[in-house]
Amino acid sequence: MTRHVAIIGHPVSHSRSPLIHGYWLRQHGIDGTYGVRDVAPETIEAFFSDFAASGLIGGNVTVPHKEAAFRACVARDSVAQALGAVNTLWLENGDLHGANTDVHGFLANLDAAEPEWARALGEAVVLGAGGAARAIVYGLLERGGDRVVVANRTRARGEALRETFGPRVQPIEWRDLGGRLMGCRLLVNTTSLGMKGQPPLDIDLSALSPDALVTDIVYVPLETPLLKAAKARGLATVDGLGMLLHQAVPGFERWFGVRPQVTPELRALAIADLKT
Ligand code: ATR
């Protein structure tokens, strides 16, 4: 029987997930589909509570429904539990189960691009304190980061991360960033600054040590102003597209029983799609 999966969000028409999963379905000759379900916030609870009637065996969840998906699940993996957000769903005996694969996506992207990145990971600096930052801070602490400095425009959201994850998280004011870059091994942008149509992320990288790695979760454009500035200083950089591709892997394996690969061909397809 054909297995149907979809990305659930609002709005969701720009999602790249159908392209990613469609590629893997074709590559592995699997009898399945990966579609799009735009579900308005007013009806999301009913949609999840009657998920078995949707015709789907599972799905991905994106903005703004990750917290509603979390609440709708009868069981969740430990990452989703820690983050309070679910981005991957599946049915087990008619019940909705959930996981969060954003942490895996972030870590696997860095592992693939810079295999040694987490060796002696001392201090990392994370820009932003929203949902994506929450997943990334969790991942960095899991990988043995000594300290994660969180710089955010709204200080209270950085403080909230410290409350959730403990004293290894250090919220700072945006204006104090310069002084914290010196000891930083990894700099991560999780804000929307630098995204196409948004203001650029304009920070002075001169205090970063030459062995620091710089990564951005923004992937439109692929080379963000931050990554361009880091490259110009001779620093290693990792772009954000890989996080999107890698976060899709565990869901596909769960629904279709095959662990898919993030191939250069998939990356090239995604890059071509970003240009359209
Ligand atoms: P996501 O789930 O992608 O993390 P989010 O939860 O809306 O999205 O978080 C967006 C992040 O980008 C936040 O850290 C936000 O800062 P605030 O918490 O102060 O809102 C940050 N951000 C967005 N626009 C920004 C801007 N113009 N200047 C500085 N930070 C900005």
UniProtKB/TrEMBL annotation:
Positions annotated to bind NADP(+): G128, A129, G130, G131, A132, N152, R153, T154, R155, A156, R157, I217, G240
Residues of the SDH C-terminal domain: 240-262
Q: Which GO terms describe its molecular function?
A: NADP binding; shikimate 3-dehydrogenase (NADP+) activity
**Keyword Transmembrane helix annotated:** no
Q: Which SUPFAM superfamilies match?
A: Aminoacid dehydrogenase-like, N-terminal domain, NAD(P)-binding Rossmann-fold domains
Q: Where does shikimate bind?
A: S15, R16, S17, T62, N87, D102, Y219, Q247
| Residues annotated as the enzyme's active site | K66
Q: Which domain of life is it from?
A: Bacteria
The pathway noted for it is:
Metabolic intermediate biosynthesis; chorismate biosynthesis; chorismate from D-erythrose 4-phosphate and phosphoenolpyruvate: step 4/7
The record's section on InterPro entries has: Aminoacid_DH-like_N_sf (IPR046346), NAD(P)-bd_dom_sf (IPR036291), SDH_C (IPR041121), Shikimate_DH (IPR011342), Shikimate_DH-bd_N (IPR013708), Shikimate_DH_fam (IPR022893), Shikm_DH/Glu-tRNA_Rdtase (IPR006151)
Kindly state which reaction or reactions the protein catalyses. Answer: shikimate + NADP(+) = 3-dehydroshikimate + NADPH + H(+)
By sequence similarity, the record places it as follows: Belongs to the shikimate dehydrogenase family.
Role noted for this protein: Involved in the biosynthesis of the chorismate, which leads to the biosynthesis of aromatic amino acids. Catalyzes the reversible NADPH linked reduction of 3-dehydroshikimate (DHSA) to yield shikimate (SA).
Q: Which PANTHER family match?
A: BIFUNCTIONAL 3-DEHYDROQUINATE DEHYDRATASE_SHIKIMATE DEHYDROGENASE, CHLOROPLASTIC, SHIKIMATE DEHYDROGENASE
Q: How does it assemble?
A: Homodimer.
The protein's name = Shikimate dehydrogenase (NADP(+))
Originating species: Ancylobacter aquaticus
Which gene is this protein's source?
A: aroE
